[in-house]
Amino acid sequence: MENPNEKRRQELEKYFDKKGPFVFLRVAQMKRAWQQKNRRELTWWESTYIPTVVSGIWLTSKHFFRNLTLHILHTVGLFKDIPASATYQYPEQPRPLAKRLRTRHRLMKREDGTPRCVACMMCETVCPARCIEITATEHPDPNVEKQPAEFILDLGKCVYCGFCVEVCPEDAIRMDTGKLDTSEYSRESMIYDKKRLMEE
Amino acid sequence: MSDILIKFLLASGTLFIMFNIAGLLTWVERKQSALMQDRIGANRASIFGFKAMGLFHAIADVLKMLSKEEFVPAGANKFLFNLAPYLSVTFALVGFAAIPIGNQLIMGARVIELQAANLNIALIYIFAMMSMGVYGVVLAGFSSNSNYAFLGGMRGAAQMIAYEITMGAAIMGVIMVFNTLDLQQLVRAQGEYLLGGWLPKWGIFVQPLAFILFLTAATAETKRTPFDLPEGESEIIGYFVEYSGMKFGMFFLADLVETVLVAALMTTLFLGGWQVLYLHPDGFHFPWGAIMTLPHLAVVGLGVLAFFLKVSFFIWFLMAVRWTLPRFRYDQLMNLGWKILLPVSLINIAVTAIIIILLR
């Protein structure tokens, strides 16, 4: 008997070139046709669901009894180095962060405690979320010329793209505090000023 | 007078134990699923810093449900809407009355059957009560004045009718083998031994096919995954969409109570109820000849313990099934029920009948 999918595939081949915009579509179509062609009918034994049900319950039961045994052993104080779960207990046990992960910002300081930032407005300009707002003022040291009177960063708007860090000529802003959980009760307290940014 | 008092104590004791097991199942379900999926599970609720492995989450859940708004949708039939959850829970709970939890306890001249109601039609009674449970589902779907709930109720009715028949047909074989409808007598009949005293005459060994059929149908009867089409909380929306607060909680509880009931029923029918291997009324008689005599109270106590251990095993198994298998599609469900399980159970009846006649 002729496979209806095979016929359909041959029909479809007329419409699609080997090259051209529909090449991905055609690949998907051919893959599906291959799957249809090589599709295996379930055997009588498989169609009773029993083998799959048994193997599934066997798998989950293995995990259940392994973890149960480990939990019991942990309470006694044995095998503490083998974890009984794959999860992190978040607030107590934070997930290890990657070294280069972009986390909450901080402003770097000079040796005398003033911010390293020279208020060049590069970060404010580059910021795609427009969450940085710098008010410049004069620095007492004439070699530095400028410093920010206020450096406002709205974490409610920030998209953590890291452009401000990339663009800073003075390495004055960094995103390496390792703090991810910026949760506050109001939008206003999401707005970080110079003092809060330099605390970190 | 004291007879009534004893009956009352027995009935309330059974109800108390079963209700508590069902309540505990919320915790068991969370912890077991967590262990199966390499998680920790509920462990945050605490009273004065004691967490007790998350046991307080069961209490926290109930408190949450009790303090939620009781919502009745506009246009709903208020009486039926309020009646449905009570029907579900009640009919699930009264089934326990006929489950024997132990052998007869002899205290002086008094003989106490450890069964809340000694019915000689206990099996039929339990099945009647379990079938009544479908009214809770249908009424909930029907009275909510919501299309989703209505469809869920219809799915529930179709499924429960389909699987009830298989369930009834599957136990026909057991009834024929043990020749009784009285569950206490049925358990007592399972105390005999086959193969020279080695193999107990438990239902699972005499009627293995009926066991698998009954297990499948009973899982469908509890309306839990893989047969949770009436509910389908997150996707296909079940008969209790419109319910909130403790009324929803009662449907939830009815499921868990039914799980316990089905586990108890399977224990009674197929795993020898309160029978302990090689334990006779006067102590252990091992097939290799050894005899260990035990006092009467210890024998009865061991029986009750064995019953609850077997029930716990079945509860564990039903939970494992619930957290392992994905949901059936509706056509697969109906095909399985009507085209596979029902014919196979009828064949099982015929084969059992022929074998019984041949052995006679």
- Give the C-level CATH assignment of the domain at 106-199 in chain A: Alpha Beta
Described by strand count, sense and barrel closure, the largest sheet of chain A is: 3 strands, antiparallel
Task: Give the SSE order of chain A as H and E letters.
Answer: HHHEHEEHEEH
Compute the separation of the termini of chain A in Å.
74 Å
**What class would the helix/strand composition of chain B place it in?**
mainly alpha
Strand order of the largest sheet of chain B: 5-6-7
Sequence of strands across the biggest β-sheet of chain A: 2-3-5
Low-confidence stretches of chain B: none
Low-pLDDT stretches of chain A? none
Biggest sheet architecture of chain B? 3 strands, antiparallel
Structure notes:
The complex is a heterodimer of chains A (200) and B (360). Chain A has 200 residues and is α+β, with helices and mostly antiparallel strands. Among the domains of chain A are: 4-37, no CATH class; 106-199, Alpha-Beta Plaits (2-Layer Sandwich), CATH 3.30.70. Chain A is 35% helix and 11% strand. Chain A contains six helices and five strands; from the N terminus they run H-H-H-E-H-E-E-H-E-E-H. In chain A, the strands form two sheets. In chain A, strands 2-3-5 form a three-stranded antiparallel β-sheet. A two-stranded antiparallel sheet of chain A has the order 1-4. In chain A, a hairpin with a 7-residue loop joins strand 2 and strand 3 (146-154). In chain A, helix 1 packs antiparallel against helix 2. The model of chain A has no long low-confidence stretch (mean pLDDT 85). With 360 residues, chain B is mostly helical. Chain B has one domain. In chain B, 62% of the residues lie in helices and 5% in strands. Chain B has helices at 2-36, 56-66, 78-94, 122-143, 147-178, 183-189, 203-206, 208-221, 245-270, 296-322, 330-359; strands spanning 105-107, 110-112, 193-194, 199-200, 279-280, 283-285, 291-293. In chain B, strands 5-6-7 form a three-stranded antiparallel β-sheet, with no helix packed on it. A two-stranded antiparallel ribbon of chain B has the order 1-2. Chain B has a two-stranded antiparallel ribbon with strand order 3-4. In chain B, strand 3 and strand 4 form a beta hairpin. The longest helix of chain B has 35 residues, at 2-36.
